[in-house]
Structure formats: structure tokens, C-alpha cells
Specification:
By secondary structure, the protein is an alpha/beta fold. The chain contains ten helices and five strands.
Length: 207
């Protein structure tokens, strides 16, 4: 019975990992806490217990490109699926595109239920790398509004909050509504330091 139970758990973790849509697998063990500034190891280890998922809280990872935001986001979500918690990883550009298509095809509500609400943990990567139209901003507001106090969300952004209005078509009302819900039950990690990717290139003598 234990053998069968272990096999089922293993198959479940493999399936959940595939469904999560990770671009690559990252773990907290691989994260260089000494290279970055602003990442409290104790705080991250506390978040890795995944109590924030049970409490439907959010994690907001801020910092310039290459400092490890996506690494941390994937590592926490990968840790969740290893504990058989349903998670999903998606970039903001793919999310908005899928929501726009669902709207056009008149399956918006079912998309919200299946893609947005079904995961216990939703990771939205790369907020701020491109400006949105008013319709795009409305789609994103729907995501944050629907999951507010009903699901845990991790977002990454290269912009500080004072710059977020520029992301959402300079609509201050929508931006305030998004931040209000996102920040209410949240853990904000502002990562400073140089890019990991540039560091690797320097180590290789390329840069």
C-alpha cells in the first residue's frame, strides 16, 4: 500500500509540474542569496513553507532584469507542486493574449474559472516590460480582483509601484484598484544588485 501511495504521489507531482508550465525548473537551493541585496533568506524560507498559499496571500518580487525575480517565483511554485499544490506559471504577455482570445471567442468566464481560479498558486511574470492598452489593463484587473482573498498570486516586475500607472495605460483608477488588492495581503521583496546573467558572462570573460 505504501509503494502504491508513493507511486501515486510521484505521478501526481510529475503531472502537476507539466501542467504548471514552468519555462525551466529552478529551486531555492540554486539561488545565490549572497549575490543579491534585499532578499532576506529567513523570509524566503518562511515563504517556502507555503503557508502564504493556505492564507491566499500574494508575493510581489521587484527588481531590474536578471536579479533573480523569476528564479524565486519558479522555485516557490515548484516547491508547491512538489507538495501536490496546483500551480501555474505564465508571463503577463501570454496571459493577456489568452484572455483577449477568450473574450473574442466568448469563453471568457470559463477561461477565468479554469486558467485563473483553478490554480491554488498563480505566478505572473514580467509585469512592466510592455505597456498595456485599457482593455489589457481591464483583463489584468479581472485576474487580481477574482483571486483577491481566494487564491495566492506571485507577480514579478521590473518597475517600482509608483511607475505602475504607466503599465496600465496611465489609468490611475485601475492601477490603484489593482495595487489595493494586490498589496492588501502581500509580501514585497525588492531585489537589488547586478544581473546574474551579466555576472555569468563576466565570469566567462565575454563581457
Amino acid at each position: 500500500l505504501k509503494f502504491e501511495s508513493d507511486n501515486r504521489a510521484k505521478r501526481s507531482r510529475i503531472t502537476l509540474t507539466k501542467m504548471a508550465g514552468f519555462p525551466t525548473i529552478k529551486t531555492l537551493e540554486q539561488f545565490d542569496f549572497n549575490f543579491t541585496v534585499g532578499v532576506n533568506r529567513r523570509q524566503v524560507e518562511e515563504l517556502a513553507t507555503l503557508e502564504f498559499v493556505k492564507r491566499n496571500e500574494n508575493i510581489i518580487l521587484l527588481g531590474q532584469s536578471g536579479v533573480g525575480k523569476t528564479h524565486l517565483a519558479i522555485a516557490l511554485a515548484y516547491g508547491a507542486v512538489q507538495k501536490r499544490i496546483k500551480a501555474r506559471f505564465i508571463t503577463i504577455s501570454d496571459l493577456i493574449m489568452q484572455m483577449s482570445n477568450a473574450k473574442k471567442e466568448k469563453r471568457y468566464d470559463s477561461f477565468i474559472r479554469q486558467a485563473i481560479m483553478a490554480p491554488s498558486l498563480l505566478v505572473i511574470d514580467e509585469i512592466g516590460y510592455f505597456p498595456m492598452s485599457k482593455e489589457d489593463a481591464h483583463h489584468f484587473f479581472q485576474v487580481i480582483s477574482k483571486r483577491y482573498e481566494r487564491g495566492a498570486t506571485i507577480v514579478t516586475s521590473n518597475l517600482v509601484f509608483s511607475q505602475w500607472s504607466g503599465i496600465f495605460a496611465n489609468d490611475k483608477v485601475v492601477t490603484t484598484a489593482i495595487l489595493d488588492r494586490l498589496l492588501h495581503h502581500s509580501h514585497v521583496i525588492n531585489i537589488l544588485g547586478d544581473s546574474y546573467r551579466l555576472k555569468e558572462k563576466k565570469d566567462e570573460g565575454v563581457v
